Amino acid sequence: MRSVNEWLDDLRGKRVVIRCDFNVPLDGDIITDDGRIKAALPTLNKLREAGARTTVMAHLGRPKGQVNPKYSLAPVAKRLGELLGTQVKLADDVVGPSAQALSASLADGEVLLVENVRYEPAEESKDEAQRAALAAQYAELGDLFVSDGFGVVHRKQASVYDIAQLVPAAAGDLVAKEVGVLSRLTTDPDRPFVVVLGGAKVADKLAVIDNLLKVADALVIGGGMAYTFLKSKGYEIGDSILDESKVSECAEYLKQAEAAGKQIVLPVDVRVAAGMDFPARQVVGEVSIVPADQIPAGQLGLDIGPESEELFARTIRGAKTVFWNGPMGVAEIPALAEGTAAVAKALTEVDGLTVVGGGDSAAIVRDLGYADDQFGWISTGGGASLEYLEGKTLPGLVVLEESASGAEADR
Questions:
Q1: 3-16: per-residue pLDDT in tens?
Q2: pTM
């Protein structure tokens, strides 16, 4: 994979298109977590300092191929300009007259952000010809392409994959760092290596468990996905979230771990209540703590309990490498965030590499008041990092390898 650093001595006056991941959470037009924007700064500053004329492409939300002001990148352009300390021009289209004119007017070191690429129906099209036609329009905005949106490299989309087939392509600092950290987890982690998984759906994580069970020393499992594992042990789980179709698979993973001399650490106690009013973000009834094998009928598990917090934290603190993805409970409710907070705190106390696997986990640690540098690495790509750890082929990385190979062959 070629690095953008190989180009820096020869970028003055060159037009560069860079794909970033600015899919940030918004409250109205206020960005509530700018971590993904900050993650792009090292590469963008290098391009500016090298004198490149930079056009940035990114998406926000799921506008489904239609122009929708709700998903405008205007708040991103404003915040990016503040962080870069310079004006960031914003085109009011993606490849139309505004983008073309502003791109052509860029001076050395200036930065343009075009509107949400997902306003274009062909961006996410399954039709390769449609994507290729859009990518050709993207390529008119620059002579070189830099891929620095790790959160989208698992997508075969025009601004991620197809454009890299049309112009010389290189990885930005963020993508290179993400790949370096995640490859270390799967190939040569310092041991003990502990993986902490949470979140609601066990089906989303089984492929990760399957792959990491081969390399990790222990898997710690909380969140909604834990209840399918508890059910597979024959426990009563009340009305807790359950994927009945995955119970036998979970039981098999427990057997595999035991046979391999590895641990799958499950909650020993849980916080339960009668239900959740998710629109109101409120618990229905009182929250109580019960043993993980004795959840009463009519109650559902909503967070790990205090004994589980200590068990999970002790397992994490004893590791030399930790990867964490997914909350331990309904962490947006303070009364149900204690398990997640305990896991986050334990990660800051590890004498080794800690990786927070993007998505909800990244936002949560910042909401809890932790600085990014209290962890070894906070990934910007929840889905991408999980697919990488599953061992899947990520199109946005494959195309960078192919571009580098093609450049080498042309020499």
A1: 999 999 999 999 99
A2: 0.91
